[in-house]
Amino acid sequence: MGNEDQLQAIQEIRSMMNRSSRFLSLSGLSGVIIGALAIFCALYMHNLVAHYNAVHGTNLDYVTVLAHDHQYNLSMMYAYGVMASSLLLVSLCVCFLLTYRQARKLGENMWDETAMRVMTSLFIPLVVGGIVCLCFVMYDTLYFVAPMMLIFYGFALYNASKYTLSDIYSLGLMNMGLGVMGLMFLKYGLVFWTLGFGVLHMVYGVAMHFKYERKRA
Q1: Which residues contact 125 (CB under 8 A, 6 or more apart)?
Q2: Please, which residues have CB within 8 angstroms of residue 203's CB and are 6 or more apart in sequence?
Q3: Domain regions of the chain by residue span
Q4: Is pLDDT above 80 for 53?
Q5: Range with the lowest mean pLDDT among 30-44, 78-92, 120-134?
Q6: Residues with Cβ < 8 Å from 201, sequence gap 6 or more?
Q7: Secondary structure of the chain in HEC code, one letter for each residue
Q8: Could you tell me if 172 and 158 are in contact, meaning their C-beta atoms sit under 8 angstroms apart?
């Protein structure tokens, strides 16, 4: 066996070991679609605040509106709950379908042991974060929800990154950083939320497409 054959054999073994220890079938397109949906939801929330200011002749940020108008707070809670639930449901469906298609294209098993580890690492922080956010809603402090969603989502990505693409690690850290910034500057919480769930997802999706999927095609 020549040197080139030995090198190729080593690369194939390394690739097999990498696939067995890491979930590599994530779809970049799913990131772009989820990011676009998040930006749409953020614009919807911004329009609710703008409508409140137009009706009352004020120029308040969304934190001030939520903190001082209990009746509007309730309507915002309902809108925010429907928006967040819909975004989560649609995002999970899109992510599942596109990742399933990507796994089939690569000839990989989507529901192997590594994929289950990714799901477990993701969902434990997400479930805990969801409970924490519900507590903020119960105590009429809805303005804490946006930054806390970023922090727990970022932690979930960071937690799952050891079983999938290394890029997830950076995405998780950036979301956590934006969440902390959102807590420090509450009135800009919706802006940081849009950057984290919207812009970062779209940038990540495009980058992953060119870095991984285009090379595999």
Answers
A1: 152, 153, 155, 156, 159
A2: 35
A3: 26-216
A4: yes
A5: 78-92
A6: 31, 32, 34, 35, 38
A7: CCHHHHHHHHHHHHHHHHHHHCECCCCHHHHHHHHHHHHHHHHHHHHHHHHHHHHHCCCCCHHHHHHHCHHHHHHHHHHHHHHHHHHHHHHHHHHHHHHHHHHHHHCCCCCCHHHHHHHHHHHHHHHHHHHHHHHHHHCCCHHHHHHHHHHHHHHHHHHHHHHECCHHHHHHHHHHHHHHHHHHCHHHHHHHHHHHHHHHHHHHHHHHHHHHHHHHC
A8: yes
Is pTM beyond 0.85 here? no
Q: Kindly indicate the confidence band of residue 10, based on its pLDDT and cuts at 50, 70 and 90.
A: very low
pLDDT, tens only, 161-196: 887 777 788 889 999 999 999 999 988 988 999 999
Distance CA(148)–CA(155), nearest Å, equals: 11
pLDDT classification of 42: cutoffs 50, 70, 90: confident
Structure tokens at 140: 């009429």
Burial of 193 (0-12, 13-18, 19+ CB in 10 A): buried
